[in-house]
């Protein structure tokens, strides 16, 4: 593989990883919020 191809490939991989990372962060964020709401809900019921 020549240098130009290698650079293009590297940028494509980095872009894909960035997208994946962003999706995972969003999913984790929503799960954390949902878990927190669940905890708050259970605390409210105990009162």
Automatic annotation (TrEMBL):
Top-rank taxon: Eukaryota
Keyword annotations: ATP synthesis, Thylakoid
GO biological process, one term: ATP biosynthetic process
Annotated protein name in UniProt: Uncharacterized protein
Species for this entry: Aegilops tauschii subsp. strangulata (Goatgrass)
